[in-house]
Each structure stands twice: as structure tokens, then as C-alpha cells.
Amino acid sequence: MLNFVPMSGNNVSHETGLPIKPVVGIRRLKEPMIAPLKTRIFTVANQKGGVGKTTTAVNLAAALSMGGLKVLVIDLDPQGNASTAFGIDRIINEGVYEVLINDLPMANVVQKVANFPHLEIIAANSDLAGAEIQLVPTVAREFRLQSALQTFLLAKQNAGQRFDYVFIDCPPSLGLLTINALTAADEVLVPIQCEYYSLEGLSLLIETLTEVQKRLNPKIILSTIVLTMFDSRTRLANDVAENVKKHFPQQLINIPIPRAVRVSEAPSYGQTVMTYDASSPGAIAYMSVAREIANRGGMPINLRNETA
């Protein structure tokens, strides 16, 4: 079922110089997605860059929101690509930097994503690039995000506005920003591009995750792996998929995201592919992955494998 929501005006992105196309319509799903029993907090991470990490975070967030679930995205990457994908001008907005460095409450910087009634974002801004260095001498530096997020989520829950999902988009490194994200989350979602080097990035992330479990956050687990930029015509892509399935059968969502031009184009126009071209193969795949994540939220993670 498609409901069309008009949006006035054509803005130009400060980031790309391209027009931010209006979101013509939001696809509201005929069958709502299953809500988890409590807020699920995901850190979306991979030490290797260019694997579709931000693309996965924003499209899953948008898809779950279309399924009627309340979703928060935290853009912890200084590049601010998640903010751009939601049409947020990160140059003029306060965001997660002020939360981490200046102790500004998240409630003061959270923004609603236009035309998504259930989706909100805490944006990155240009100051975030210096946060790694500024955090070094800070007391309890690894827990800054966790403390602010838990305070915010509790206040929302007490007000009857509980979030179902939180996605923290990390930079492609394992510095203090990523450590803050791993400390604040319950689950790690790893996008893996179907190439050899992505497997190396996964190995390094698992080593870091083990250290975080020992010293900072014993409850965090690697719960979800998503294959991105999948090209079924190549032997390498299929070999990587089989390798991941062999070693992580429960964590892998066996719905690969195809390599698709529309997925790459969408952020240039201040959108996710879910609104830019909802009928494209990339959008359909992300919607299917989102529904599988929702299905797994209330049961053992290997029991269901449905698509949207």
C-alpha cells in the first residue's frame, strides 16, 4: 500500500551541491513489522571502509520505520553521510559532538526526519572530526555515549514514546568513537562487502569486540551480518557468501543486498533508496532484511527467514 505525502520546496545540499529531491511518498507497509520487547540498540560497524555500512544503517532504519516501528539513528561518523542521506544539513546543526564533548542532552539535538513519522536522528556535524582527540583526556571517555543515550531513552520510555530500534553508524576505524558506540550498544551489525578484504575487517572487529566484552560492555554480541554489494555473477562474491554462512550461520541474514546504482544515487538527493526508488532491487532487499531483523527480535535468531 502506497500513501503519498507531499513535501514542498526544492533545496540544494550544502554537501553535494545537488538538489535535495522532495520525498514524494512514504511506503507504509500493509503488514506492520514485529516490535521488540525492549529497545534494540545496534552498532553498525566494520573497520574496512566502503562496505556499505552507512547505506545499510540508514536504509534499515527507514525500512523499519515504514513498518511502523519507532527508530533512532545516531550518526557517529565525522563524514556525516547518514545525516546527508536523511536530508539533514549537518553544517548548521548541533549534534552528537555537542553530546559527547559538551554534555548537551540528546533531547536538545535530536531531529525528526522529514516525512517519516517514526524516524529521528542525532546528526553528525563538522566539529565531530576533532572529537577523537578531545575525548582522550576526558573522564570515563568510553562511556560518554552510553550515559547520554540511556538517559535519553529512559526519558522517552517514561513519556510513553519508547524507541524500538537505535542504529549507531560508526566511522571506518576502531578509535574512541567506535569504542563509545560498542559500549553503548547491545548488538553489533556488520555489513560485509562480498570481497576478500571485508573478511579481514570482520576478523579485526571481532578481536576488538572481544576486548570490549571483557573490559567495557559484557552484554554486547555480534548478532547480525548483512552481505552488501553482492554480484551473483562473480565467483568471489559467492565464495565470500558461503564462507560467511559457514562460520556465522546464525548471525548471517541470508538476503544479500545487490550491487545497485539506485542505492548509490539516493544519498546525493538527500534520501535513502527506500523513498528514492522503493521498487528497485536494492530497496526490496533492504526491506526484506529489515523484516527479518524484526522477526528475529522476539525469538531465537535462526528460526525464521521470511522476506518482506
Q: What features would you describe in this structure?
A:
This protein is α/β, with parallel strands linked by helices. It has a single domain, classed as P-loop containing nucleotide triphosphate hydrolases (Rossmann fold). It has eleven helices and twelve strands. The strands form three sheets. An eight-stranded mixed β-sheet has the order 7-8-6-9-5-10-11-12, with helices on both faces. Strands 1-4 form a two-stranded antiparallel sheet. A two-stranded antiparallel sheet has the order 2-3. Helix 1 packs across helix 11 (281-296).
Q: Main sheet?
A: 8 strands, mixed
Fraction of residues in helices? 25-40%
Name the beta content range: 15-25%
Number of strands: 12
Q: Which CATH top level class fits? A: Alpha Beta
Poorly predicted ranges (pLDDT <50, ≥5 residues)? 1-10, 12-16, 298-308
* Main sheet strand line-up: 7-8-6-9-5-10-11-12
- Provide the CATH architecture: 3-Layer(aba) Sandwich
Give the helix/strand class. alpha/beta
What is the straight-line distance between the termini?
Answer: 13 Å
Shape: globular
Enumerate how many helices there are, as a single number: 11
- Mean of all residue-level pLDDT scores: 85
Q: Into how many domains do the coordinates divide?
A: 1
Q: Keyphrases for this structure?
A:
11 helices; Rossmann fold; 308 residues; two-stranded antiparallel sheet; 12 strands; 37% helix; alpha/beta; disordered C terminus; globular; single chain
Briefly, what is this?
With 308 residues, this protein is α/β, with parallel strands linked by helices.
What's the layout of helices and strands?
Elements: E1 2-4, E2 11-12, E3 19-20, E4 25-27, E5 40-44, H1 53-66, E6 71-75, H2 81-85, H3 96-102, E7 111-112, E8 119-122, H4 131-135, H5 144-158, E9 165-169, H6 176-184, E10 187-193, H7 196-215, E11 221-228, H8 235-247, E12 252-253, H9 261-265, H10 273-276, H11 281-296
Parallel strand pairs: 5-9, 5-10, 6-8, 6-9, 10-11, 11-12
Antiparallel strand pairs: 1-4, 2-3, 7-8
